[in-house]
Design a protein that fits this description.
By secondary structure, the protein is mainly beta. It is 6% helix and 37% strand. The protein has helices spanning 164-171, 367-373, 497-503, 508-517, and strands at residues 2-3, 14-17, 20-33, 39-45, 54-57, 61-68, 76-79, 105-111, 117-123, 134-140, 150-159, 185-188, 191-192, 198-200, 206-213, 219-223, 229-234, 237-244, 246-249, 254-260, 269-276, 289-296, 335-340, 342-344, 352-354, 390-393, 398-405, 411-415, 420-427, 442-443, 451-452, 454-457, 461-468, 475-480, 490-495. The longest helix has 10 residues, at 508-517. The termini are far apart.
Amino acid sequence: MRFGLAVQLLVFGVSVLAARVQVTWDVGYKSISRDGFSTWRAIGANGQVPIPPIYVTQGDVLELTAINHLDKPITLHAHGLFQRNSTFYDGVGMVTECGIPPGGQYTYMIDTGEQHGLYFIHGHYGLEMSEGLRAPFIIQEKEQSTEYDEDILLTLEDWGQQPEGELIERLKQVSTDSLPNDYKTGLVNGINGNISQTVQFECNRRYRIRVLNIGLDQSFKVQIPGHTMHVIEADGVTTKPLRVDGLDLAPGQRYSVIVQALESDEFNYGLNVTMHADFLDPVPGLTPRYYPQVIEYRKGAPMREYAQQSDDALVWPDDFTLEPRDECEMGSADRVIELNKRNYLPGMGLPYYGLGNASYASVRVPTMLSALTMGDLARDPLVYGPQSSVIVLNYMENVELVVRNGMNRSHPMHVHSRVFQVVERGPWGDAQAMGKRVVPLQVARPNNPMRRDTVVLPEFGYIKLRFKADLPGAVSIVHCHTEHLAQGMAVVLVEAPRVLQQNARVPQALLDNCRALGFPISGNGAGNQGYDLTGLPPAIAL
């Protein structure tokens, strides 16, 4: 099976009107087997699973209309898009909207502005993303800044043996200390990775390969033995070319690499994909899982074999070796916000997680609507409810997030609406006592630290991230981009709420959807006035 043809505008319920691209997703269920042995009710769009990619050009506005044919609410989030002055299109359930009710619809206006590169669109209400509601979103540059002959898309995702939502409901009845492992199957461009696919190469041509991990909790490594990769983009940020031997992508991360085809077609080569997870002990045949694909120069040519090398002998992209092409000095820190990953083990069911004193959970009024309607009180985090985990930012202050993790599992941390500078990474907790590697201390170059929107918080380690609060009125969630969001590992940033109150023009359809779902559209987190939070369930203290 072949994939990776030269990119053209993919027509999928799409019509192009000047700088506007109109797309309609009829979101519904489809019974399908994607791993070759388990069949269950996945979520797709327009009758298709996987949902095909969306291509636009830098500066376009994507008008994405979602029509909900499910029996539960949904939202759609454009992962990595800034949504400047349009936080009500960020698509986070009970943060920026109530959701689209069954039978309802909502149109997301996604203005690409100056952004370009590799992104994706996914459900962000519950765990619909893991059940198929996800698709690559590619913003092509108006003027190509890197020379290449052909564009290839490599989409990686994990697929469970049952819907993730059903799995979590089942695990709620299991003792905390006996939670089973869920060994998943890796999908390559929507197809079971065990089915070898072919990428056609021609001698002496230059290829841009866009690689993204849109899965839930598994990471992926990608290598092309015998070929050199140069990273030119990470999470939508154009980078100075960096030579690497392979890529390692946590959930939510994306890279573009330039690969120079060889001069001879004497051999074909492997395109090796490995799915792995640091929270699973190696089990032969189950984890890690290997999915060999083929780089084909000539049909019928023999495969060139290479001796396997250890990961430590190879060069991988790292946030402290990557450099943005557009240089920007390390920002100062007017304010330091410390976020410690914490657990609460109830004895039965899944653990609760959090980044502060309480586990994040949905409230009765979307945080954005509380910020919009609570006047001066919107500057006080207390009015949003303790389970909303709100942090209020002042306009243009320089913020440093220090995120610590004393547990034996890494976490891909994603910040909505912006990119941040990765300024430091180091050890935290007692890794040696757990038989784990001690994270080395690394500090970014002060003249040009890497910027991105999704970064790995290492096991028994910490990261420091910096950004300027230059999005007045934005309501942005910061969260682990795995199922841990559903377990509460998140905080919400509310920036200059008084500016939101002065400038926001919330779509009427958003308010109508709230009413249809029975949620208030004003007031504090409980839908009341002042500090009366009657009606909210107790927050889970950590």
